[in-house]
Design goal:
Helix content: 25-40%
Radius of gyration: 33 Å
Distance between the termini: 86 Å
CATH class of the largest domain: Alpha Beta
CATH topology of the largest domain: TIM Barrel
Length: 555
Amino acid sequence: MAHPPSGVPDDPRGLLDLAGRPLGPSPDGGRPWLAIVEPAGRIGWSSPDQPMPDGGPLPGPGHSWPDILPEELREPGRALLERLVTDGAEAVDELLPAVTPRLHWLRLRLRAVRRADGAGRVLVRLDDLDPSDDPLVSQVIRDPLTGCYSRRAFLQLAAMPERFTGRYTAALVAEVRRFRRINEVWGSGVGDLCLAEAARWLGSLGATEDVLFRLGGGRFLMLLTAASEVPAALAGCGQRPVRFGYRELQLSLQAGLADRTAGQPLLALADQADTALVTARRQAWRTVVRWTGEIAEQAASSAAAEEAVQQAVTAGAEAVLFQPVVDVAAGRVTAVEALVRLGGPAAQLPTERVLAASHKLGLTPDLASRVYTLAFTEGLRLRSVFPGCLIHVNVSREFLSTGLAVDTVLASAAAAGIALDQVVIELTEEVATELPPAQLFAELGRAAELGLQLAVDDFGRGETSLALLRRLPFTSIKLDRSLLPTQPDERGWGFVEGVVSLLTRLTGRIVAEGVETPAQSRRLRELGVHVQQGYLFAEPRDLAHWLAQGLRLPG
């Protein structure tokens, strides 16, 4: 790296510092201050072979740096200098990254000495800092918890021209699996232990010139060089124990990886790795997922979905459709499930993508309030067709985790004037495994005490904690359509029979979803499942349809 030249005299041309003392070596042994001059808005410099001019024309072009700065610092240095001149500040003090021969930080300090006529000088000092023990580096660019470089440090490095960062050929964004739940269940102290261990783990896998940053929360970023073997090593690592007191938990990581293309900015590279991590979360069995064209298409599709949802919610283009829930033994509709449908391009999106997009955009509370109020208001009118029917509404796991869901349902029910015991909240079974038990018991217990009914939706599609379900106040469980055989299959129906027998001991009411054929309906009745829902009876329709045509049940 090109350091300031060592042959600079102690007092070139009799320059003075801000206190009027001769300019010379730093008292702490650091590199000496050098000076540039700024008359009439132009910038020149003073050096041993080119003394500071005294009011005459400047040597060389304005706004350029001499060789006292490494090449990679000249662009950010010019920006700092122009800020000093433009803002009229007395001093600027910044840490800047350098990448030769390894990533490290330099401290660049500028001081202005101005004369009454508007001319003046800027004093320049450059110090090479040791990140391992320099307190300034630790405060500004180090994450104090893990010792990794901070997000700010990455943003500084990413702002450098590609010719100085070309050694980094890939980026890996890793996160501690279920970090949020670790904090909620075990406390932030244990979460901090996991972060420190994750940083040590990743650091031990990296090559000499790989660089590790902590982005925030449980997420880390590694810039990898060609010699790096981190992805392969991480994929084969499995878990590491984290001990606290007399206890131990198994720490595991998940990551997205992106390979750098020629000239690609580091920010864009990190975004690709982050998107690959999102895919890894959906494919929980995979430790490292590499960015591909397919993932790029999925990301573009998600962005388009978010834009469509944003437009629909902003325009108020939401509607509610109702699908009947039928008691086939009694021959009547006992409930209706309210399903949201958005207008415009968002109308073609599956419900799961609408919910994911609205949550990511922060639209869920407002959208849910409007949809629930509409569902309860129109649901009451449906009772002229389906007397006494209950109204089912869905609450996503993400919305429940905010702590706003139950209150939103209560406020909407009050606005519509529906009794709370006529409302059924449907939650997918994942809430029992992905949300902290304390939060579940608090939210769902309060809902049940107020009279709201609770149903487990899509039972059998994901992970289930039967012990936890047994302790939660659910009044009904809805079997997922994936459990129902579509062809004559005694083994398949034998499995359904076993599930029904087990669930009967957990709840008094079982609903079969996705019933599409008379044969499925008959077999379910034989197993004692009389409450059914699906296209055999009706597809979701709006209020106007049901008021005009009602429902004729099959045979």
